[in-house]
Amino acid sequence: MTLQQLEYFLAAADHRTFSAAAAALHMAQPSLSEQIRRLEAELGAPLFVRARRLELTEAGRLFRPEAERTLAAAQEARDSVREVRELESGTATFGTFGNAPYYLLSDLVQDFRKRYPNVRVRLIGQNSSEVAEAVRDGRLEGGLIVLPIDDRGLDVRPAIDDELLYLSKDPEHVKEPMTIERLAEAPLILYDARFGSDDPTRRQLAERAQRAGVTIEPQIEVEYVEAALDLALRGLGDTIGTRRVALGRAFGRRLHHVGFDPPITDTFAFVTRRNAHLSPATRAFMELAAKRMEALD
To answer: What's the DSSP call for residue 260?
Structure first.
């Protein structure tokens, strides 16, 4: 029994004549008929009632789903080999938020290129909301973002959490956990100026402020977290940042810090378009990224 014979059998069952099945497979009808006869001889039972149109026998009806499963398994095996082969080339296209380099990005790219030196890497994005929109529109295959985001049409797979801290040059400002009411009165420096209220961390703060009946209005807005930390270190205001980012930078380690009451965490998650098939390169990149994020947890 060969895969080719199974393919011929299923084509005949679908098209109901040997001539139509042979035409669909771009082959001569006698060759197809002969292979099906050999298959029936090996099985020891006829698969078709040969009339004006072919009808499956009881044996044929039982055999059909098994033939379909066998061909599907063979295709999966071929696909797995093809994907390994394709990882010798191609491009991994991935979206990230602006602070991703502080978590894993440089080491991740280095590891990926070491494993797949011929695969190009294309990393795009400055903010989670931007990345989520690009994945939803099909401009990116996948991304690593901070929740919450608009998840319409997306599959979201949470990875790790990181605590949000309040940071100040003045130790008096961090003597006790920061409340949203006190944050509303603080001399606040916030990053992600371009995205403003669309930034997931700012959305968390805004939602908490709304429930408390206060408004968060930063005195200074900048684009990058390092700029916010630098300005805070110069005494121009206080800022916020996740524990891994803020305390992992030279600026942050020189600032005093405290958590929020109740605590606020940023949740990082992988997103892909719902039911989308990822290219082998992007899937391999995301798998490696997931392992690195697990190691951080």
So the answer is: B
